[in-house]
From TrEMBL:
Protein's UniProt keywords contain NAD: no
Organism (species): Rhodococcus daqingensis
Highest taxon of source: Bacteria
Alphabetical list of Pfam families matching this protein: Aminotran_1_2 (PF00155)
Keywords: Aminotransferase, Pyridoxal phosphate, Transferase
Protein name: PLP-dependent aminotransferase family protein
Limits of the Aminotransferase class I/classII large domain: 44-383
Keyword Kinase applies: no
Length: 400
């Protein structure tokens, strides 16, 4: 299904879910609630000692506490360019990198550069809420195409294009999708890139989770296949959210336009945290060991929630990232289930929070990274009890 919504409709239809998620995160701050709702890394796996050491190394230079270039400290851009080059088959120039205040700022800046009010944007359904907020504020006309186990349905995108739609950009979370868990197949990456070349739209390849794989690394980036792909990523999920270091990789004219807009937004980011990130990201042996540790921990936790509810749900295979996406087969309304879950001391995000035009009443997103296996086992038990309670209520309501 291809779903269309005007900017005015989107403003009405999508404004409520974000406050509900914020309210839910406030509730989950209560100590008695085991939260599967947020999208947070485990604080015990954030390398505080290494951050402290990198901070001391950075502070040995006086310019670490001075302003830096709007596009980011060039030393970090060199590190990012080298890592982006190693991730694919294309050589990336540091001048094709802009460092941002998290990848969300990169998305916001790109919307200002690439979108006029009323411009068409294509997103996946279910959709990443952060992208929806940005595109709604840009007054975009949003179309959706479905997501399945192999990522964005690029065949459905091609149908949309054949029907005459001409999007300014297409947004995809290509690896370990938030919220849908899926990873785009290599064939679909090539197809998406070919469509971008043929029809002249930009692709934003949003990839904050790509290094958190469990069994095998994801396919080569979409950006390997076309110059019309802009890649976003972040140090938040593998180092620390508080560093607020994200980046975009794009052709130099796009970077120049983003830099101009960024000058009006914040002039420049934090030289100190950018230098800290550069120290850590360039320390190959340490980083490899750190990534191995978090992949092992999160992989075990993914396994702990993957079997929740058994054959009552279908679940996307979790190859990496932070989320498990469930679809109930038994008529469960997850908004009602959430009410029962909170009564049982556990929280998650109902799938309706990620809907644009699709029906996600039977779906749910669980985040497995913040809690260890013992806490996750308890959370699954509480969810099972909540589901049984919601089942009884639904049965009683039907009988009455």
């Amino acid at each position: 299904m291809i779903v269309e919504a005007s900017a005015a409709t989107i403003g009405l239809a999508l404004a409520p879910p974000a406050p509900r998620i914020r309210d839910l995160l406030t509730i989950t701050a209560r100590p008695e609630i085991v939260s599967l709702a947020g999208g947070l890394p485990d604080p015990d796996l954030i390398p505080r000692t290494r951050i402290r050491e990198a901070g001391a190394e950075a502070l040995a230079r006086p310019d670490a506490v001075q302003y830096t270039e709007t596009a980011g400290w060039f030393g970090l851009r060199e590190v990012i360019a080298a890592r982006e080059s190693a991730a694919g088959s294309r050589s990336v120039d540091p001048r094709e990198v802009v460092v941002t205040h998290g990848s969300q700022q990169a998305l916001s800046l790109l919307a200002q550069v690439l979108l006029d009010p009323g411009a068409t944007v294509v997103v996946e359904e279910p959709a990443y809420t952060g992208a929806l907020q940005v595109f709604r504020l840009a007054e975009a006309r949003i179309l959706t195409v479905p997501l399945d186990a192999d990522g964005m349905r690029t065949d459905r995108l091609e149908e949309l294009l054949d029907a005459g739609e001409r999007p300014a950009l297409v947004h995809t979370v290509s690896n370990f999708h938030n919220p849908g868990s899926a990873t785009m197949s290599a064939a679909r990456r090539r197809h998406l890139a070919a469509l971008a070349d043929t029809y002249g739209f930009w692709v934003i390849e949003d990839d904050p989770y790509g290094e958190i794989w469990f069994d095998a690394a994801p396919p080569a980036p979409v950006a390997d296949h076309s110059d019309r792909v802009i890649r976003l990523s972040s140090a938040s999920k593998i180092l620390a959210p508080a560093l607020r270091v994200g980046w975009l990789r794009a052709p130099r004219p796009v970077c120049a336009a983003v830099e101009l807009v960024k000058q009006g937004a914040d002039l420049c980011g934090s030289t100190l945290t950018q230098r800290i990130a550069a120290v850590m990201l360039s320390d190959g042996p340490w980083l490899a060991g750190h990534l191995e540790r978090i992949r092992g921990a999160y992989g075990a936790r993914a396994a702990a929630v993957a079997g929740a509810f058994g054959d009552r749900v279908s679940a996307t295979v979790i190859g990496g990232g932070m989320f498990c996406w469930l679809e109930f087969r038994d008529g469960t309304d997850t908004a009602a289930l959430l009410e029962a879950a909170l009564d049982h001391g556990v929280a998650f995000v109902p799938g309706s929070a990620f809907a644009v035009g699709g029906d996600h009443r039977a779906t749910a997103r669980l985040c497995f990274t913040t809690n260890d296996e013992s806490a996750l086992a308890e959370a699954v038990d509480r969810l099972a009890a909540a589901h049984a309670s919601a089942d009884r209520r639904r049965t009683q309501s039907t009988q009455s």
